[in-house]
Design goal:
Helices cover 19% and strands 20% of the residues. By secondary structure, the protein is of the alpha+beta class. It has a five-stranded antiparallel β-sheet with strand order 1-2-5-4-3, with helices on one face. A hairpin with a 5-residue loop joins strand 3 and strand 4. The longest helix is centred in the first third of the chain and has 13 residues. The protein is globular. 20% of the residues are buried.
Length: 122
Amino acid sequence: MEQEPPLVRAVHPELIEELAALLEAEGERELAVCVRDVRLVGECGCGDDFCQSILTAEHPRGRPYGPGHRCVPLPPSSGDLILDVVDGRIVYIEVLGRPPLPRRTQPEQGPSEGGQQLDLPV
């Protein structure tokens, strides 16, 4: 059985808390709730040193999202945070021009997590 990608909040909890607060402040209550459950499907991989963007759903590189897509720019205290949303689902988190994101390598220990090393897609 294939393991699901980790939750972004397990890897970058501070980012998810910031996104949830910014979404609430912008009146995006549904997205503020949904952002807590997005998965780290992959990292951008563009190689730009200012980019730390995160794929939260599979999508062919270089292809438009199509109908139902909208961008949600947020006003962080530094850099840029922009969400790509398709039919109410967050599919990409653009993280640009910000200090390096703290990265938790161990999930919080819960009954089923037992301190396992996260296998993160890149």
